[in-house]
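Sorry, I am new here, but would you mind making up a protein's amino acid sequence and the tokens describing how it folds?
***
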Amino acid sequence: MTDRVEPADGAAVVVGAPTSQDAPPPHKERRGGLWSDAWRDLRRRPMFLVSVGIILVLLVMALFPQLFTSIDPNHQVLERSRQGPSAEAWFGYDTQGRDIYARTIYGARASIVVGVLATLATVLIGSLFGLVAGYFGGWLDNLLSRFSEIFLGLPFVLGAIVILTTLNPATGIPDPTRIIGLVILSISVLSWPIAMRIMRSAAISARQQDYVKAARALGAGPVRIIFRHMLPNCLAPVLVYATIALGGFIGAEATLSFLGLGLRSPVVSWGVMIADSRDYIQVAPHLLLFPAGFLVVTVLAFVMLGDAVRDALDPKQK
């Protein structure tokens, strides 16, 4: 209950009524960490939702191709060679009478596996070297930086030719597992310096932060500081690079296969299909159109995802 007091000038003052100073503070939006804020921002981006939807479909296609087709991708009927799309074969048949739709579905597995594993190897090697170089600095930083420049200076195609022709025998029936491993090795060996430079730059910045100085003052060793304190705070730029690079590595596999250096039959991949169609583009363009279309959509989806993640993790965009 409040008391009403009449002052001398006649103005009424209510004693005990809430004033502006007693009013509750305005509601403030609760802010989380970098990753929670980034996830909240990503969920509102149409480009992120579209790219994730496409990638999920491609992953299901690669893991469970039987859900999309029941046709053997290597089944040959020579009488159907280079026949166009029809109700029986939506994408037509290739030069050996194999169903292009089935081969396109099954080809997603090899292409995505090469892209994912090459990205993991590239990020692991580059991140490890970048963290060590950025934390210790000095002569070790100079040594690792000069070592990475050797691989960075090699043209990608030329370096891949040297690695694949040296380690991959040109005679006999190729081992699919061996060929996939060599393609992953060649891509990661020639690409890790970029990941190292990104991680090194982030590590140099993190090394000057107070939490690293406090951990060092409390007696934490270099291994604990690097992997417990610095690594979680340096992941954002490398994650953006890995997302974009994954699409690029899928395209790199197709490039090497087109040149006859990467995957080869009996492996089914989009790059192998594009390589098989290069001599028949004018007479049977559907041989190239469908695997190339899936390849372009896949690369574009990962690039779109990388752009969305980069914008969400960039503090300047907040």
